[in-house]
Amino acid sequence: MADPPIVFADGAAYERFMGGWSRLAGDVFLDWVAPAPGLRWADIGCGNGASTAMLLDRCAPASVDGIDPSPAQLDYARGRLAGRPARLRQGSAMDLPFADDSFDAAIMALVLFFVPDPAKGVAEMARVVAPAGIVAAYSWDLAGGGFPIAVIQEEMRAAGMAVPMPPSADASRRETMRALWADAGLREIEQRSITVTRRFPDFDIFWTTSIQGPAMVATLEGQTPEAVEALRRRVHDRLTADATGGITISATANAVKGLKA
Ligand SMILES: C[S@@+](CC[C@H](N)C(=O)[O-])C[C@H]1O[C@@H](n2cnc3c(N)ncnc32)[C@H](O)[C@@H]1O
Q1: Distance between CA 162 and CA 145 in Å, rounded?
Q2: Which CATH architecture has domain 11-146+165-196+252-259?
């Protein structure tokens, strides 16, 4: 049976759950992409604006256009980016509402594995950037255990709970990403792995932060309180607190970049 869709219906919850992770990995990603200032950027799957804000803060863009299918994410992004020079609109990576050759750089930050047909999504990014434009993405390394809450997912599976996966989880594999970029006709393809660590002041903060993701909320709602508490205890016992009770978690993403011919 297909996994239920993962619906991003709460931009604030996304911020609490993923915003911090997105910024940590996004910093490394943008350092690596190393864009010149003054580019016209497309932020595909801009979500609640976490990646869009980073482009504005770090890349001195000429313009930033973000698209995302989720009205809730876009609402949050519009609040976050109020007064800032970003245009946001609803849309899908599968059919970008932009003319050919209209950007200098297009990125998908933590998005590729949500796109129903990743090859189409990458082809669309290649279409909308001008020749020599940058097409780049990073995705949590789902198969390699790189998702920030992989430890919770492992314990869920051990307890027989379903762990919903995004529709194109395979697109987060390093070799799949390279093939997608090559098949889209992109050149000078480079890849890297991005590992980041995040410290939570204590286990409870890690737990409450980590169960706010849309897939997790939907799954845990279907469990009894006793089952959720048992899961919480098993995850607790897997993690070692530091001297002041803090919990440090690492996560790994695969990144890829290339240029339009
Ligand atoms: C993990 S969030 C990433 C958001 C943001 N880029 C960031 O770095 O925090 C994934 C986003 O992909 C969006 N998404 C899902 N399907 C999509 C599609 N077909 N095209 C574009 N975005 C999509 C979701 O609505 C969600 O906001």
Answers
A1: 16
A2: 3-Layer(aba) Sandwich (3.40)
